[in-house]
Amino acid sequence: MKDKILKKxxxxxxxxxxxxxxxxxxxxxxNQSTKAIKESHxxxxxxxxxxxxxxxxxxxxxxxxxxxxxVTYYTDYTFALAIDLLQRVKxxxxxxxxxxxxxxxxxxxxxxxxxxxxxxLDEDYKDPSAVIIGSVLEENLRQLSLKNGLxxxxxxxxxxxxxxxKAEFLNTELSKxxxxxxxYQKSVTAWIDLRNKAAHGQYGEYDINQVxxxxxxxxxxAAKFV
Length: 226
Prior knowledge:
This protein is mainly alpha-helical.
């Protein structure tokens, strides 16, 4: 089973590299028909990887959510992110950590993603950067909740399955339980709102300087609480 998983991951990494080479070697401008075909290939690739990661790790896993939220644009940065994430998953599987990585988030991993978000900002890609930063903040809230004995999921009344609690609910509960004060709660609420705008394509609702402030807040938040 392990060898099959590694082979599948290698296939996804190779495909991402091929898509990246194709993107970098294509002569611009790309006509609309060709662009639609290429974006369709990218969409199919993303769907396949997400389906595999969901089956392998579960929908609440950090790697799955990073891929879901970060691999969103047909750009070289997107493929670089995809390759990096898949290589990390492969290493964890190869090292025998498959059963232990669920829900485990290290400070090093947080730093890596925030550094990636900062690099995107430096290249004026504010929107994918905002999504990545928001994902780190949400995972910080989950880890902080677990650390303080607070729930991070609940049973869905319709499906009967466990469903992850939303970031704003976690934020409210952390404040109620005096993990941090009301001022921090209000700040987290505002930054979650920015993340949601980025995730839903409302790119004109915020600017790059706000995303830079968002990045600094999450760095400070993680250092202080997580």
